[in-house]
Amino acid sequence: MDNASSVKEFILLGLSENQGLQKIYSVLFLAFYLITVAGNLLIVVTVISSQGLNSPMYFFLCSLSFVDICYSSTTAPKMIAGLLGGSKSISFMGCMAQLFGFHFFGCAEIFLLTAMAYDRYVAICRPLHYAALMSGRTCGLMVLGSWLGAFFHSTLQLLLTICLPFCGPNKINHYFCDVHPLLRLACADTRAVGAADVVNGGLITLSAFAILVSSYVVILVSLKGQTAAGWHKALSTCGSHITVVILFFGPCTFIYIRPSSNLAEDKAVAVFYSIITPMLNPLIYTLRNQEVKSAMRKLWSRKVGSQNAKVRDHSHVSKGSEKIEHLSL
């Protein structure tokens, strides 16, 4: 920390230094961020307020949507502010906090997706034991374990970086603070830290991906001999989750299982798992899920109905007051 104190702040260079591209990016990513927050918040409100969505699958989906809001909020607002002409500087401790938050929520998403895959495996391969294996207590412990695992991972990533000496330059060739671009700025031999980062991030990503792939292989094998209707039901149940896993783990694995060699390439790929995937998650899960769409329609109908009732009550009160005033006259 004493060595790092020689650099008080970093400059985030962002996605591009071209002014024309920055204007386009600012509008595009602002729209992406607003859709991300609105879509995931809608899922959280719908699951919490709908009694019909009380199964483990929707409990995990609600948790995932909350994580997506937090995950995109660690990087998108600062990036958009920089694109709109705001300050591109970030304090040293602010940079470390962003690094911690990004890995914390990103790792929590990885563990939650793994928990959701296990839920689908039990639902399809062991349906008679589903209620016992996926009790409310078990689901709560799985989500808690996701948060704790993410905390340990992000703490290690933070410790690997914050202890490095930074004595200049301070320009980060990225749109947020991450380990790989910060290693380029350290005034020391960072090969050991880079290897530890690859082992830490790569081990989690590859292990989770292997578990996910294995679970779906087992599900497909268990469907042998099933009718076409059974196949369709299973694939419709798992299709949304498989799509999200591919969109998230593909770019994430590309970044964190190898030493960084091209930061321009890395930050372009990072857009997919840090900005685009959190935006697409609510669209993927709602468009393919009739229960969620039905619950949203009911929620909207209740809201519209309550507003109409308030308008009618206000109208009756107004008419009553007018009659009283007329009689008094």
TrEMBL record:
Pfam families (alphabetical): 7tm_4
GO MF: G protein-coupled receptor activity; olfactory receptor activity
Predominant localisation class: membrane
GO CC annotations on file: plasma membrane
Gene this chain is encoded by: LOC113991973
Keyword S-adenosyl-L-methionine in annotation: no
Keyword tags: Cell membrane, G-protein coupled receptor, Membrane, Olfaction, Receptor, Sensory transduction, Transducer, Transmembrane, Transmembrane helix
Domain of life: Eukaryota
Protein name in the entry: Olfactory receptor
All residue ranges annotated as the G-protein coupled receptors family 1 profile domain in the record: 39-285
Similarity comment text for this entry: Belongs to the G-protein coupled receptor 1 family.
InterPro entries membership: GPCR_Rhodpsn, GPCR_Rhodpsn_7TM, Olfact_rcpt, Olfactory_Receptors
Membrane-spanning segments: 24-45, 96-118, 130-152, 203-223, 235-257, 269-287
Membrane topology: Multi-pass membrane protein
Gene3D superfamilies cross-referenced by the UniProt entry: Rhodopsin 7-helix transmembrane proteins
Annotated localization: Cell membrane; Membrane
